[in-house]
Amino acid sequence: MNKLVGITRNFSSSASLNAIKTVTVVGGGLMGSGIAQVTAQAGQNVYLIDTQKEQLEKAQKSIKNNLVRVAKKTFKDDAAKADSFVKESLNRIKMSTALEDGVNVDLVVEAIVEKLDAKQELFNKLDQLCPEHTILATNTSSMSVNEIGSRIKRKDRYGGLHFFNPVPVMRLLEVVKGEQISEETYQTLMTWGKSVGKTCITCKDTPGFIVNRLLGPYSAEAMRMYERGDASAKDIDIAMKLGAGFPMGPLELADYTGLDTKKALLSVMLQKTGHPVFQPIGLLNRLVAEGKYGRKSGEGIYKYEKSKV
Ligand code: 3HC
Predict the structure, then answer these.
(1) Å from CA of 17 to ligand 1 middle
(2) Does the structural domain 4-204 have CATH classification 3.40.50.720?
(3) Which helix (H) or strand (E) holds 201?
(4) Tens digit of each residue's pLDDT (9 = 90 or more) over 240-298
(5) Which of 11, 152, 216, 302 could form a cystine bridge with 45, CB 3.0-4.6 A?
(6) What pairing do the DSSP bridges indicate for beta strands 107-110 and 172-176?
(7) CATH architecture of 212-297
(8) Of 162, 219, 252, 297, which is the active-site residue?
(9) Which residues of the chain register pLDDT less than 70?
(10) Is 162 one of the catalytic residues?
(11) Is 174 an annotated catalytic residue?
(12) 68 pocket-lining for ligand 1 (C-beta < 6 Å)
Protein backbone atom coordinates (compact mmCIF):
# COMPACT_ATOMS: atom_id res chain seq x y z
CA MET A 1 0.00 0.00 0.00
CA ASN A 2 2.99 2.23 -0.35
CA LYS A 3 1.70 3.34 -3.69
CA LEU A 4 -1.75 4.74 -4.05
CA VAL A 5 -4.39 2.08 -4.32
CA GLY A 6 -6.18 2.02 -7.67
CA ILE A 7 -6.17 5.66 -8.74
CA THR A 8 -4.82 8.20 -11.08
CA ARG A 9 -2.10 9.87 -9.09
CA ASN A 10 -3.33 13.44 -8.66
CA PHE A 11 -6.78 14.68 -7.93
CA SER A 12 -7.18 18.11 -9.44
CA SER A 13 -6.14 20.85 -7.05
CA SER A 14 -6.31 24.19 -8.69
CA ALA A 15 -9.13 25.39 -6.46
CA SER A 16 -9.24 28.82 -4.96
CA LEU A 17 -9.20 29.18 -1.19
CA ASN A 18 -12.97 29.16 -1.05
CA ALA A 19 -13.50 25.89 -2.86
CA ILE A 20 -12.12 22.84 -1.15
CA LYS A 21 -12.41 19.94 -3.57
CA THR A 22 -9.59 17.66 -2.53
CA VAL A 23 -8.57 16.79 0.98
CA THR A 24 -5.83 14.80 2.67
CA VAL A 25 -6.20 13.37 6.13
CA VAL A 26 -2.97 12.35 7.84
CA GLY A 27 -3.41 9.67 10.51
CA GLY A 28 -5.63 6.63 9.99
CA GLY A 29 -6.83 6.13 13.59
CA LEU A 30 -10.37 6.57 14.91
CA MET A 31 -10.54 10.29 14.17
CA GLY A 32 -8.63 10.31 10.90
CA SER A 33 -10.67 7.50 9.38
CA GLY A 34 -13.89 9.22 10.47
CA ILE A 35 -12.80 12.52 8.92
CA ALA A 36 -11.88 10.75 5.68
CA GLN A 37 -15.25 9.04 5.69
CA VAL A 38 -17.38 12.18 6.09
CA THR A 39 -15.30 13.94 3.43
CA ALA A 40 -15.86 11.14 0.94
CA GLN A 41 -19.54 10.92 1.85
CA ALA A 42 -19.82 14.60 0.96
CA GLY A 43 -18.56 13.85 -2.56
CA GLN A 44 -14.99 15.07 -2.13
CA ASN A 45 -11.88 13.13 -3.04
CA VAL A 46 -9.71 12.31 -0.08
CA TYR A 47 -6.33 10.75 0.58
CA LEU A 48 -5.88 8.95 3.88
CA ILE A 49 -2.22 8.76 4.82
CA ASP A 50 -0.72 6.70 7.62
CA THR A 51 2.83 5.40 7.99
CA GLN A 52 1.45 2.03 9.16
CA LYS A 53 -0.04 -0.20 6.47
CA GLU A 54 -1.93 -2.18 9.12
CA GLN A 55 -3.58 0.99 10.39
CA LEU A 56 -4.82 1.78 6.88
CA GLU A 57 -6.21 -1.72 6.50
CA LYS A 58 -8.04 -1.32 9.79
CA ALA A 59 -9.31 2.10 8.71
CA GLN A 60 -10.56 0.71 5.42
CA LYS A 61 -12.62 -1.93 7.23
CA SER A 62 -14.11 0.44 9.75
CA ILE A 63 -14.92 3.08 7.10
CA LYS A 64 -16.72 0.44 5.05
CA ASN A 65 -18.73 -0.78 8.06
CA ASN A 66 -19.65 2.76 9.06
CA LEU A 67 -20.62 3.73 5.51
CA VAL A 68 -22.97 0.75 5.46
CA ARG A 69 -24.59 2.04 8.68
CA VAL A 70 -25.03 5.49 7.17
CA ALA A 71 -26.35 4.06 3.89
CA LYS A 72 -28.92 1.88 5.68
CA LYS A 73 -30.23 4.93 7.48
CA THR A 74 -30.14 7.32 4.51
CA PHE A 75 -31.51 4.96 1.85
CA LYS A 76 -33.83 2.83 3.97
CA ASP A 77 -36.03 1.66 1.10
CA ASP A 78 -33.53 1.60 -1.72
CA ALA A 79 -30.88 -1.10 -1.43
CA ALA A 80 -29.36 -0.25 -4.84
CA LYS A 81 -28.84 3.40 -3.87
CA ALA A 82 -27.41 2.36 -0.51
CA ASP A 83 -24.99 0.04 -2.27
CA SER A 84 -23.80 2.65 -4.76
CA PHE A 85 -23.44 5.25 -1.97
CA VAL A 86 -21.06 2.91 -0.16
CA LYS A 87 -19.11 2.01 -3.31
CA GLU A 88 -18.81 5.58 -4.59
CA SER A 89 -17.78 6.92 -1.18
CA LEU A 90 -15.15 4.21 -0.81
CA ASN A 91 -13.84 4.93 -4.31
CA ARG A 92 -13.22 8.53 -3.34
CA ILE A 93 -10.82 7.48 -0.57
CA LYS A 94 -7.27 6.69 -1.62
CA MET A 95 -4.90 5.29 0.97
CA SER A 96 -1.15 5.51 1.09
CA THR A 97 1.75 5.21 3.50
CA ALA A 98 3.65 7.97 1.66
CA LEU A 99 2.91 11.56 2.68
CA GLU A 100 4.06 12.79 -0.73
CA ASP A 101 1.05 11.08 -2.32
CA GLY A 102 -1.32 13.40 -0.50
CA VAL A 103 0.31 16.81 -0.74
CA ASN A 104 -1.29 18.13 -3.94
CA VAL A 105 -4.66 19.02 -2.39
CA ASP A 106 -6.70 22.01 -1.20
CA LEU A 107 -6.86 21.06 2.48
CA VAL A 108 -4.78 18.81 4.74
CA VAL A 109 -6.23 17.75 8.10
CA GLU A 110 -3.73 16.30 10.55
CA ALA A 111 -5.06 13.64 12.94
CA ILE A 112 -1.90 11.92 14.17
CA VAL A 113 -0.73 11.10 17.70
CA GLU A 114 -1.04 13.92 20.29
CA LYS A 115 2.71 14.62 20.47
CA LEU A 116 3.93 18.14 19.84
CA ASP A 117 7.23 17.15 18.16
CA ALA A 118 5.54 14.72 15.79
CA LYS A 119 2.87 17.25 14.83
CA GLN A 120 5.36 20.08 14.33
CA GLU A 121 7.57 17.88 12.19
CA LEU A 122 4.62 16.86 10.05
CA PHE A 123 3.45 20.44 9.55
CA ASN A 124 6.95 21.57 8.61
CA LYS A 125 7.03 18.88 5.92
CA LEU A 126 3.56 19.75 4.69
CA ASP A 127 4.45 23.45 4.57
CA GLN A 128 7.37 22.63 2.29
CA LEU A 129 5.64 20.01 0.13
CA CYS A 130 2.13 21.39 -0.40
CA PRO A 131 1.27 23.94 -3.07
CA GLU A 132 0.90 27.56 -2.07
CA HIS A 133 -2.90 27.52 -1.85
CA THR A 134 -3.21 24.46 0.42
CA ILE A 135 -4.75 25.11 3.82
CA LEU A 136 -3.29 23.12 6.71
CA ALA A 137 -5.36 22.21 9.79
CA THR A 138 -4.83 20.23 12.96
CA ASN A 139 -7.46 18.06 14.66
CA THR A 140 -5.65 18.29 17.99
CA SER A 141 -7.98 17.78 20.93
CA SER A 142 -6.12 19.82 23.51
CA MET A 143 -2.78 21.11 22.30
CA SER A 144 -2.20 24.69 21.21
CA VAL A 145 -2.96 25.18 17.53
CA ASN A 146 -0.49 28.08 17.43
CA GLU A 147 2.28 26.05 19.05
CA ILE A 148 1.80 23.15 16.63
CA GLY A 149 2.03 25.51 13.65
CA SER A 150 4.68 27.79 15.14
CA ARG A 151 7.35 26.85 12.59
CA ILE A 152 5.32 26.97 9.39
CA LYS A 153 5.44 29.89 6.99
CA ARG A 154 1.82 29.87 5.80
CA LYS A 155 0.33 30.92 9.14
CA ASP A 156 -2.48 32.75 7.32
CA ARG A 157 -3.56 29.43 5.79
CA TYR A 158 -3.54 27.41 9.00
CA GLY A 159 -6.03 26.65 11.78
CA GLY A 160 -7.69 23.98 13.91
CA LEU A 161 -10.53 21.65 12.91
CA HIS A 162 -11.60 19.67 15.93
CA PHE A 163 -13.95 16.76 15.23
CA PHE A 164 -15.71 14.46 17.71
CA ASN A 165 -15.89 10.72 17.97
CA PRO A 166 -17.68 9.00 16.25
CA VAL A 167 -17.03 11.52 13.49
CA PRO A 168 -19.80 10.30 11.16
CA VAL A 169 -22.38 10.78 13.94
CA MET A 170 -21.28 13.76 16.03
CA ARG A 171 -22.55 16.92 14.38
CA LEU A 172 -20.14 19.44 15.86
CA LEU A 173 -16.95 20.86 14.42
CA GLU A 174 -14.88 23.31 16.45
CA VAL A 175 -13.09 25.66 14.08
CA VAL A 176 -10.11 27.04 15.96
CA LYS A 177 -8.68 30.35 14.89
CA GLY A 178 -4.90 30.38 14.79
CA GLU A 179 -3.50 33.77 15.76
CA GLN A 180 -2.52 34.67 12.19
CA ILE A 181 -5.30 32.94 10.26
CA SER A 182 -6.71 35.08 7.46
CA GLU A 183 -10.41 35.84 7.31
CA GLU A 184 -10.54 34.04 3.95
CA THR A 185 -9.02 30.85 5.38
CA TYR A 186 -11.32 30.97 8.40
CA GLN A 187 -14.39 31.38 6.19
CA THR A 188 -13.16 28.57 3.93
CA LEU A 189 -12.81 26.24 6.91
CA MET A 190 -16.30 27.14 8.16
CA THR A 191 -17.74 26.52 4.69
CA TRP A 192 -15.88 23.25 4.31
CA GLY A 193 -17.06 22.02 7.73
CA LYS A 194 -20.63 22.68 6.67
CA SER A 195 -20.04 20.86 3.39
CA VAL A 196 -19.12 17.68 5.31
CA GLY A 197 -22.32 17.90 7.33
CA LYS A 198 -21.12 19.59 10.50
CA THR A 199 -22.40 22.51 12.53
CA CYS A 200 -19.35 24.72 12.93
CA ILE A 201 -18.59 26.85 15.93
CA THR A 202 -15.67 29.21 16.38
CA CYS A 203 -13.14 28.78 19.17
CA LYS A 204 -10.11 30.68 20.32
CA ASP A 205 -6.90 28.70 20.72
CA THR A 206 -7.48 28.00 24.43
CA PRO A 207 -6.69 24.66 26.17
CA GLY A 208 -9.34 22.05 25.25
CA PHE A 209 -11.26 24.66 23.22
CA ILE A 210 -14.89 24.37 24.39
CA VAL A 211 -15.93 20.72 24.54
CA ASN A 212 -12.80 19.15 26.00
CA ARG A 213 -12.34 21.97 28.50
CA LEU A 214 -15.71 20.95 29.93
CA LEU A 215 -15.61 17.19 29.28
CA GLY A 216 -12.06 16.75 30.67
CA PRO A 217 -12.81 17.59 34.33
CA TYR A 218 -16.12 15.67 34.19
CA SER A 219 -14.41 12.57 32.87
CA ALA A 220 -11.48 12.85 35.31
CA GLU A 221 -13.82 13.15 38.29
CA ALA A 222 -15.78 10.09 37.15
CA MET A 223 -12.56 8.06 37.02
CA ARG A 224 -11.50 9.24 40.46
CA MET A 225 -14.93 8.36 41.81
CA TYR A 226 -14.60 4.83 40.42
CA GLU A 227 -10.99 4.54 41.63
CA ARG A 228 -12.01 5.51 45.18
CA GLY A 229 -14.80 2.91 45.09
CA ASP A 230 -17.54 5.49 45.61
CA ALA A 231 -19.71 3.57 43.14
CA SER A 232 -19.36 0.85 40.52
CA ALA A 233 -18.40 1.81 36.95
CA LYS A 234 -21.79 0.67 35.75
CA ASP A 235 -23.66 2.76 38.29
CA ILE A 236 -21.62 5.89 37.54
CA ASP A 237 -22.50 5.47 33.87
CA ILE A 238 -26.17 4.76 34.56
CA ALA A 239 -26.29 7.80 36.83
CA MET A 240 -25.17 10.23 34.14
CA LYS A 241 -27.28 8.64 31.42
CA LEU A 242 -30.51 8.57 33.39
CA GLY A 243 -29.89 11.47 35.75
CA ALA A 244 -28.33 13.93 33.34
CA GLY A 245 -29.46 12.74 29.93
CA PHE A 246 -26.04 11.97 28.46
CA PRO A 247 -26.09 9.38 25.62
CA MET A 248 -23.18 7.54 27.25
CA GLY A 249 -21.85 7.49 30.80
CA PRO A 250 -18.43 9.11 31.41
CA LEU A 251 -16.57 5.81 31.84
CA GLU A 252 -18.12 4.22 28.76
CA LEU A 253 -17.24 7.38 26.88
CA ALA A 254 -13.64 7.32 28.10
CA ASP A 255 -13.30 3.73 26.85
CA TYR A 256 -14.97 4.72 23.60
CA THR A 257 -12.70 7.71 22.97
CA GLY A 258 -9.61 5.78 24.09
CA LEU A 259 -7.89 5.87 27.47
CA ASP A 260 -4.55 6.67 25.84
CA THR A 261 -6.15 9.75 24.27
CA LYS A 262 -7.74 10.67 27.60
CA LYS A 263 -4.38 10.39 29.39
CA ALA A 264 -2.65 12.57 26.79
CA LEU A 265 -5.46 15.10 27.03
CA LEU A 266 -5.24 15.36 30.83
CA SER A 267 -1.50 15.77 30.69
CA VAL A 268 -1.67 18.63 28.16
CA MET A 269 -4.51 20.30 30.05
CA LEU A 270 -2.54 20.13 33.31
CA GLN A 271 0.49 21.62 31.65
CA LYS A 272 -1.54 24.40 30.02
CA THR A 273 -3.89 25.31 32.88
CA GLY A 274 -2.17 24.03 36.04
CA HIS A 275 -5.64 23.12 37.34
CA PRO A 276 -5.56 20.26 39.92
CA VAL A 277 -8.56 18.54 38.30
CA PHE A 278 -6.20 17.53 35.49
CA GLN A 279 -3.66 15.85 37.85
CA PRO A 280 -2.64 12.31 36.79
CA ILE A 281 -5.07 9.54 37.75
CA GLY A 282 -3.50 6.29 39.02
CA LEU A 283 -6.17 4.05 37.53
CA LEU A 284 -5.90 5.67 34.10
CA ASN A 285 -2.10 5.49 34.08
CA ARG A 286 -2.16 1.82 35.12
CA LEU A 287 -4.68 0.82 32.44
CA VAL A 288 -2.77 2.64 29.70
CA ALA A 289 0.55 1.11 30.85
CA GLU A 290 -1.08 -2.33 30.57
CA GLY A 291 -2.17 -1.59 26.99
CA LYS A 292 -5.83 -1.37 28.05
CA TYR A 293 -6.87 1.55 25.89
CA GLY A 294 -10.61 0.93 25.98
CA ARG A 295 -12.90 -0.34 23.27
CA LYS A 296 -10.28 -0.29 20.50
CA SER A 297 -7.93 -2.69 22.37
CA GLY A 298 -10.72 -4.92 23.75
CA GLU A 299 -10.36 -3.77 27.35
CA GLY A 300 -10.27 -0.54 29.35
CA ILE A 301 -12.49 0.21 32.30
CA TYR A 302 -14.79 -2.44 30.80
CA LYS A 303 -14.04 -5.60 28.82
CA TYR A 304 -15.42 -5.92 25.29
CA GLU A 305 -16.33 -8.94 23.20
CA LYS A 306 -14.07 -9.05 20.16
CA SER A 307 -16.99 -8.90 17.72
CA LYS A 308 -18.21 -5.64 19.28
CA VAL A 309 -14.89 -3.80 19.29
N1 3HC B 1 -20.51 5.58 11.96
C2 3HC B 1 -21.74 5.73 11.44
N3 3HC B 1 -22.88 5.62 12.17
C4 3HC B 1 -22.73 5.30 13.46
C5 3HC B 1 -21.49 5.11 14.08
C6 3HC B 1 -20.33 5.27 13.27
N7 3HC B 1 -19.14 5.14 13.76
N8 3HC B 1 -21.69 4.84 15.39
C9 3HC B 1 -23.01 4.85 15.60
N10 3HC B 1 -23.65 5.12 14.44
C11 3HC B 1 -25.08 5.29 14.23
C12 3HC B 1 -25.81 3.98 14.32
O13 3HC B 1 -25.90 3.33 13.08
C14 3HC B 1 -27.17 4.41 14.84
O15 3HC B 1 -27.98 4.86 13.78
P16 3HC B 1 -29.59 4.74 13.90
O17 3HC B 1 -29.98 5.57 15.08
O18 3HC B 1 -30.10 5.28 12.63
O19 3HC B 1 -29.85 3.28 14.08
C20 3HC B 1 -26.87 5.61 15.72
O21 3HC B 1 -25.59 6.10 15.30
C22 3HC B 1 -26.84 5.24 17.16
O23 3HC B 1 -25.88 4.18 17.32
P24 3HC B 1 -26.12 2.88 18.20
O25 3HC B 1 -27.59 2.51 18.18
O26 3HC B 1 -25.14 1.86 17.80
O27 3HC B 1 -25.71 3.27 19.66
P28 3HC B 1 -26.12 4.48 20.54
O29 3HC B 1 -27.52 4.88 20.36
O30 3HC B 1 -25.62 4.12 21.89
O31 3HC B 1 -25.22 5.70 19.99
C32 3HC B 1 -23.27 6.98 20.02
C33 3HC B 1 -23.85 5.60 19.90
C34 3HC B 1 -23.66 7.82 18.81
C35 3HC B 1 -21.77 6.83 20.07
C36 3HC B 1 -23.85 7.67 21.32
O37 3HC B 1 -23.72 6.80 22.41
C38 3HC B 1 -23.17 8.97 21.65
O39 3HC B 1 -23.52 10.02 21.12
N40 3HC B 1 -22.22 8.91 22.60
C41 3HC B 1 -21.48 10.10 23.04
C42 3HC B 1 -20.31 10.33 22.15
C43 3HC B 1 -19.53 11.55 22.55
O44 3HC B 1 -19.78 12.21 23.55
N45 3HC B 1 -18.51 11.87 21.74
C46 3HC B 1 -17.60 12.96 22.01
C47 3HC B 1 -16.38 12.41 22.64
S48 3HC B 1 -15.18 13.65 22.98
C49 3HC B 1 -14.27 13.73 21.58
O50 3HC B 1 -14.46 13.02 20.63
C51 3HC B 1 -13.20 14.75 21.57
C52 3HC B 1 -11.87 14.19 21.20
O53 3HC B 1 -10.97 15.26 21.14
C54 3HC B 1 -11.35 13.17 22.15
Answers:
(1) 32
(2) yes
(3) strand 199-203
(4) 999 999 999 999 999 999 999 999 999 999 999 999 999 999 999 999 999 999 999 99
(5) 11
(6) unpaired
(7) Orthogonal Bundle (1.10)
(8) 162
(9) 1-18, 307-309
(10) yes
(11) yes
(12) no
